[in-house]
Amino acid sequence: SKLVYTFGGDASHGDDPRAKDKNLLGGKGANLAEMASIGLPVPPGFTITTEECVRYLKEGSDFSADLRADIAKALTHIERTVGKNFGDESDPLLVSVRSGARVSMPGMMDTVLNLGLNDKTVEGLAKVAGDDRFAWDSYRRFIQMYSDVVLGLDHGLFEEALEIAKEDNGFFADTEMTADDWRALVKEFKAIVEREQGEPFPQDVHAQLWGAIAAVFDSWDSDRAKVYRRLNDIPGDWGTAVNVQAMVFGNMGDTSATGVAFTRDPATGEKAYYGEFLVNAQGEDVVAGIRTPQYLTLRAREAAGADKPSMEEAMPDAYGELAKVFELLEAHYADMQDIEFTVERGKLWMLQTRSGKRTAAAALKLAVDMVEEGLIDEKTAILRVDPMALDQLLHPTLDPDAARDVLTTGLPASPGAASGIIVLDADTAEHKAERGESVILCRVETSPEDIHGMHAAKGILTARGGMTSHAAVVARGMGRCCVSGASAVSINLKDRTLRIGDRELKEGDTITLDGGTGQVMAGKVATIEPKMAGDFATLMEWADRIRRMKVRTNAETPEDCVTARKFGAEGIGLCRTEHMFFDASRISAVREMILAEDEGGRRKALAKLLPEQRKDFTEIFEAMAPLPCTIRLLDPPLHEFLPTGDQEFAELAEITGFGVDHLRRRAEELHEFNPMLGHRGCRLGITYPEIYEMQARAIFEAACDVAEKSGNAPVPEVMIPLVGTKRELAILRKLVNDIAAEVFAERGRELEYLVGTMIELPRAALMAGEIAEEARFFSFGTNDLTQTTLGVSRDDAGRFLSTYVEKGIYGRDPFVSLDVEGVGQLVSLAVERGRATRLDIKLGICGEHGGDPASILFCEKTGLDYVSASPYRVPIARLAAAQASL
Ligand code: PEP
Ligand code: MG
């Protein structure tokens, strides 16, 4: 099979399906080939496959003879198409070399431009172009980029040399540098290379090319790429492709330019071309944010009140071409595209297209608009929105009426709002965030080295860079709010201060960002709840029509119930009653119950708790009726409720009349070495039935009260935790039934209710056939089921799990995303055995996995009836359930 695929010119691969394969050619390579094949102006080039990268990395970084031969042929294709030869001293072919994995990865080596220049070819280039300055500018850029990304030298050394050269000449901008200035700088750059690496800058153009190819391959295994892969769940064995393409030049004077654009607004989804360009510049100038770019359209320029002309005004012909390309690309891909282009002396060239990263709000608007435009159908629209991205829309935004102490306004690069403390570097951001602090990462500009800090931060502020700068693009992809290009901000890393105009702030001071307006504010600004209307509601309606599984919520307070219902919850899948026990006003009665010497003592304390529990359930039923509510009886080990400090013991002594010493001794008796596997769950109900009796009574009395008062009867589903045997459930089911009968007799009314169990122990899953004889429903408690199946403690896993994920032992944290292969087998088996006994047994999941899209897909395939997720995850689960059923 081929190792290299050509594109552009007369390249053709017959009907070889691999020639279109994104997995093989990477997103960039596949799309370049596709653009060329639909007749768009793409400079010719070739793509080395991802397979070859994987082979190269596995087999010890050696190029095969086959690869050398294929690349020689592919180079000839480029040479023939453009009519120039690589290394030709009179008229050299120059190429760009770029990485390109299946999905775009900011952690990897990105681009080397102008490859093929050396001391001889630079003269040839100058002659052919008739422009000395352009040729020497290109050469110094090449040395700088190649030294940075291929030779691994510190780019700061080169930037510093350039700054000094400008200072010596009294220049402000790079554009003031003349041909001779660039020539002198090249000399200096070469001296830096020789000094730093002990050998001269490579003059052999083929050695340059192989060096760049090796650098792209090796970048797949760089630390930054690994971090990015871990954060984004990208497998380590995909590899990256390498794209080598004939150069076109955006830096050939004032009729040349380079830019990046989106076919629609990636922040809002609005149907308007959107982008930035720079006259007389090369691609990386736009992204690096070194010069502030100009707007693409007249409309955008006017809206921003900028004075430099837009591309529409400055280069109307090339702009017209570009607009046509936008339309063609959107029609072809039926999606919003993110594009890189270059104009070389008036002629437009396309360098990249890909589906554009977008904010959640934009994703919704694009999906809904494109259905209305007839570009895509509803199912495609549902699949277009990443359920996890909805999270961005479900959280509070800044209150428009709250007072704002605005320090400055930058570009609204990624929407949302965030308050947090100022942090000036990525490592500190990560460190502080790990300790639970909200941080705002403030940088002059960001680079891929900052990814981990951006991920840890609530928001990102940069002093330099446009709407398509690294910070802006990455922040939008991550759903972090971002204000970029706030040029009034100056950062002093030595003093750890940040100055905005005449206000001096310190690292650690609180600021607030508004990514929708670009405002930077001092202090914390009040927020308001989000609205679930418009495109959000439309897409959710489509999703609800398609999904099979119901979506419930895990909730234990009336407030949570109200939130979850607003988000579309169709019932409670798990109400953890112990959360009610922790309430400050009740904890002493709970402690009194636990520390009592005998049943009589416990009953006395439980009698105090009954009215409180009844009130809890009444409020919950009122919020949820007539939807089903699964209420779980007490689960955690009793020692979790015990008093700890002297004061807590003293208070309890007062209430109970027992001495502090006596209470301390009782508490010690209750100590467990392994409480998660100890006296908890249904074992409490078996040993102290009076606890479950009180809870069952509270449930049924509350249900009767609500039915009487509102006529809207709730359907309680009483759930027994941590069952491992049929007998446990049989005993406790009888207990619940007896109490129900008692309460119904007292109240003179019968209500529908169910008794069921959690399946959260491997034995329960294995014995599900038998257990189903006693259970009307199963709810998979995948938190405990994961803990007990893997033998990994939920509470202690944090110490080693990240290493496990890094080393690929687990693909993802198994407490976040269900271990489908292992734990999944137990779930499938229990479903099968449970249904075999009781055909209409109700099946759901209430572990954290119920809100995780990948796990929801598993639940759909396994045939569960519902998933239950925390309130803010309910919309995510609704969309994920719809996607799962497609
Ligand atoms: C579970 O174990 O998955 C569960 C939902 O119960 P808890 O998290 O309360 O143990
Ligand atoms: Mg559990």
Automatic annotation (TrEMBL):
Signal peptide: none annotated. Residues 533-884 form the PEP-utilising enzyme C-terminal domain. GO terms for molecular function: ATP binding; kinase activity; metal ion binding; pyruvate, phosphate dikinase activity. Substrate binds at residues 576, 632, 760, 781-784. Keywords: ATP-binding, Kinase, Magnesium, Metal-binding, Nucleotide-binding, Pyruvate, Transferase. Residues 437-518 form the PEP-utilising enzyme mobile domain. InterPro entries: ATP_grasp_subdomain_1, PEP-util_enz_mobile_dom, PEP_util_AS, PEP_util_C, Phosphohistidine_dom_sf, PPDK_AMP/ATP-bd, Pyruvate_phosphate_dikinase, Pyrv/PenolPyrv_kinase-like_dom. Mg(2+) binds at residues 760, 784. Its cofactor is Mg(2+). The keyword Oxidoreductase does not apply. The keyword ATP-binding applies. It comes from the Bacteria. Residues 23-60, 65-304, 320-371 form the Pyruvate phosphate dikinase AMP/ATP-binding domain. It catalyses: pyruvate + phosphate + ATP = phosphoenolpyruvate + AMP + diphosphate + H(+). Pfam families: PEP-utilizers, PEP-utilizers_C, PPDK_N. NCBIfam families: PRK05878.1, pyru_phos_dikin. Belongs to the PEP-utilizing enzyme family. PANTHER family: PHOSPHOENOLPYRUVATE DIKINASE-RELATED (PTHR22931), PYRUVATE, PHOSPHATE DIKINASE 1, CHLOROPLASTIC (PTHR22931:SF9). Catalyzes the reversible phosphorylation of pyruvate and phosphate. This is Pyruvate, phosphate dikinase. The lineage of its organism: Bacteria, Pseudomonadati, Pseudomonadota, Alphaproteobacteria, Sphingomonadales.
